[in-house]
Design a protein that fits this description.
Elements lengths: L4 E7 L2 H10 L2 H9 L6 E8 L1 H12 L7 E6 L6 E8 H10 L4 H16 L7 H17 L7
Parallel strand pairs: 1-2, 2-4
Antiparallel strand pairs: 3-4
Helix pairs in contact: 4-5, 5-6
């Protein structure tokens, strides 16, 4: 786990904070994010509702629907990574149920997915998707989670 992770957690509402913290502790969230970084990283992880996920997805990506995770990476000087990761808990909850996965495992997966986007990984091309998925599986398994695919 990275000892150079500067992590800020934000919650759209107090109710959302209570829901997230009933699924995973702050220490677990920090551990999951930290497993993705070997160099300095400055992250803000924000948990949002569907309305905020929709607004962000529409404004920044042009998609008129809410989404499960968004990553905003910022250019830096040096070797540090700076990013905001937005997770929509209601969508994650629905996906976990539909995919018959535990919510905690799905949350860990999508957080790691967002962190890998912050590091520059993407899945637009099949070769890139395969590489990103393999890394997600490796990190998740190191944390005790099953292959999400």
């Amino acid at each position: 786990m990275s000892q150079t992770l500067n992590l800020d957690l934000q919650f759209a509402t107090q109710a959302l904070q209570n829901q997230v913290l009933s699924i995973a502790s702050l220490a677990q969230i920090r551990k999951w994010a930290g497993a993705c970084f070997q160099s300095k990283a400055i992250l803000t992880i924000r948990f949002v509702n569907k309305a905020e996920a929709h607004d962000l997805n529409l404004f920044f990506r042009g998609f008129d629907k809410p989404t499960n995770v968004l990553t905003f990476s910022y250019p830096t000087q040096g070797k540090s990574i700076e990013a905001d990761i937005v997770l929509c808990l209601p969508i994650l909850r629905a996906e976990a149920k539909k995919q018959q996965k535990s919510l905690v495992a799905h949350l860990a997966h999508l957080l790691i997915h967002g962190c890998l986007h912050a590091k520059g990984y993407d899945h637009l091309k099949p070769k890139d998707a395969k590489q990103m998925e393999a890394l997600e599986i490796k990190i998740l398994q190191s944390l005790g989670f099953p292959n999400p695919y």
